[in-house]
Amino acid sequence: MLYLTYRIVYRVSCIVYKRVFASLPHTAYKIHDSRYLSCSRGVTTLLVIGFMGVFMLILATITSYAFEQAKYGRALLGREQALHVAEAGLEYYRWFLAHNPGNLTNGTGLPGPYSYTVSDPEGGTMGTASLTVTGSTQCGALQYIDISSRGISSQNPGFPRTISARYMQHNVAEYAAITNTNVWYGAANTSVGPYFSNGGIRMDGTNNSTVTSALSSFSCDSSMGCSPTQTKNGVFGAGSGSALWKYPASSIDFSGMATNFGTLRTYAQTSGKYLQDATVSANHDSMGYHIILKSDGTYDVYKVTGTTWVYGYRANGDCASGGGWCSDYDIINAGGETYVGNYAISSTCGLIYVEGTLWLEGTLRGKLTIIAADPGSYAPDILLNGNISYAATDGTTGLTAVAEHSIRIPLIVPDTTNIRGIFVAQTGYYGRDYYLEGYTSGNDSYIVRSTLNTTGSIVSSQRPVTCWSSGGGTCDSGFNTRTNSYDRMLAFSPPPFTPIISTDYHYALWNEQ
Question: 142: which strand partners?
Answer without folding.
Answer: 137
